[in-house]
From TrEMBL:
Family membership noted in the UniProt record: Belongs to the TonB family.
Positions of the TonB C-terminal domain: 304-396
Protein name: Protein TonB
Species the sequence originates in: Thalassotalea eurytherma
Pfam families according to UniProt: Peptidase_M56, TonB_C
Gene3D superfamilies in the record: TonB
Localisation per UniProt entry: Cell inner membrane; Membrane
InterPro entries given in the database record: Beta-lactam_resp_regulator, Peptidase_M56, TonB, TonB/TolA_C, TonB_C
Bilayer-spanning residue ranges: 6-26, 38-58, 87-108, 180-203, 275-295
């Protein structure tokens, strides 16, 4: 798990930074609908490390100088390391956050049992239950399995008929787009990346842009007076609402005054967004993902002979527990670059036997190796790590530099 997070944190951080920092500039240019959809790239960035795309066209280049060094590693399965500590720390935070969400959701369910079912004239949606409650101060859509729209008791007194219709259309937009489901996925993503400040910022703006996109849908082709009345309804809702701690899977943004002011300003400016700019931005995000996914594995091997650079520090790979239990041995051929300072960069798997068993362990170890400093470093160096269950194991994977990893 930690290996995956280490590999995923860079693409996730890059995309989250762009979404948060470029929001003020891009949102008016592409529109809230397009910008809301850009958040889909965040979960995609976490999938990148799980996609193993070997470069079958790349073979060891005899022109590269490769050392023949044998390293025997002792068994590490029962030894606590920094990765073990990091995993348990991450798992603790993940469980606490998920537990907090579940408790809040159970509180919400218990409160919902007391809410009175009502019918709204002219508003009936298949599968959506409508209830009235004094626990809420503005309309709120809640529930994953049995969605319900909760209306405050004084809804009719505080809002005009036109305002009521627009607010209900807004909640209906959330329901029809399955935004509650998307919010659940977003919270799972936030639970996984709970330690990352950018994850919290991205989630915050994701919810804001969710509201803006619904406003844009509701007010599309509406006249000016209708837009003004809707803005007044947002102001009224902001004045009436107090923060609600239990509604993590609901839409409580009516009570956030900062969100309300941004929504009102967005309604006033009414940015249309450019289709051309939207396509360019989406294309840029796709190319960024592609670059982060394939930059390492798909680089061509340089033909010229590299200078001889000696390793000065090697980190022993961990033998995967699942491989020990299944009594698996194997080999991983890795391609990597050595910077002028001696650091290892752009590690990628060229060939793994068996595929997907030892890849991550090999990559994590190699990234921590240190080589001698040099003028230009080295591009496309090759190393082979042989994983053996014992020192006496005979492996037939002798192609390039061999690092033998054993259990005892």
């Amino acid at each position: 798990m930690i290996d995956w997070l280490i590999e995923a944190i860079i693409p996730f951080s890059v995309l989250a930074s762009v979404l948060v920092l470029a929001r003020v500039l891009l949102l008016p240019l592409v529109g809230s609908q397009t910008y809301y959809r850009l958040y889909l790239f965040l979960p995609l960035s976490l999938i990148l490390p799980l996609i193993n795309i070997p470069n079958w066209l790349l073979t060891p280049d005899s022109s590269l100088q490769v050392q023949k060094v044998l390293v025997v590693a002792n068994e590490q399965l029962h030894r606590y390391s920094i990765y073990d500590l990091a995993f348990y720390l991450w798992l603790t935070g993940f469980c606490l956050f998920v537990g907090y969400l579940l408790i809040n959701h159970l509180v919400l369910i218990q409160r919902a049992k007391r809410w009175q079912p009502i019918a709204i004239e002219g508003f009936k949606v298949e599968g959506l239950h409508i209830r009235q409650s004094d626990d809420v101060f503005s309309p709120m859509l809640i529930g994953l399995i049995k969605p319900m729209l909760v209306i405050p008791e004084e809804f009719n007194q505080h809002f005009s008929k036109e305002q009521q219709t627009l607010i209900l259309e807004h909640e209906l937009c959330h329901y029809q787009r399955n935004d509650l489901v998307w919010n659940a996925f977003a919270l799972i993503l936030l639970a996984i990346m709970w330690f990352h400040p950018l994850a919290w910022l991205a989630f915050r703006y994701y919810r804001r842009d969710q509201e803006l996109s619904c406003d844009e849908t509701v007010l599309a082709r509406k006249h000016t007076n209708c837009r003004i009345n809707y803005s007044k309804a947002l102001v009224t809702a902001a004045q009436l609402t107090v923060p609600i701690g239990f509604a993590q899977l609901s839409f409580k943004e009516y009570g956030d005054k900062n969100v309300m002011f941004e929504r009102i300003q967005f309604i006033k400016d009414n940015p249309k967004g450019s289709v051309l700019i939207s396509l360019v931005v989406i294309g840029a995000f796709l190319m960024s993902l592609s670059a982060m996914s394939f930059a390492g594995p798909n680089q061509a091997v340089q033909g010229k002979k590299a200078e001889h650079i000696m390793p000065i520090k090697r980190i022993e790979p961990k033998y995967p527990k699942a491989a020990v239990e299944q009594k698996l041995e194997g080999s991983v051929v890795l391609k990597f670059d050595i910077t002028s300072s001696g650091d290892v960069d752009n590690v990628s798997v060229i060939k793994a036997t068996p595929a997907g068993v030892f890849d991550k362990s090999a990559k994590v170890a190699l990234k921590q190796w240190q080589y001698q400093a040099s003028n230009a470093g080295m591009k496309n160096a090759l190393v082979q790590l042989d994983f053996a269950l014992s020192k006496s194991s005979e492996l037939a994977f002798k192609q390039v530099e061999q690092i033998k990893v054993t259990r005892d």
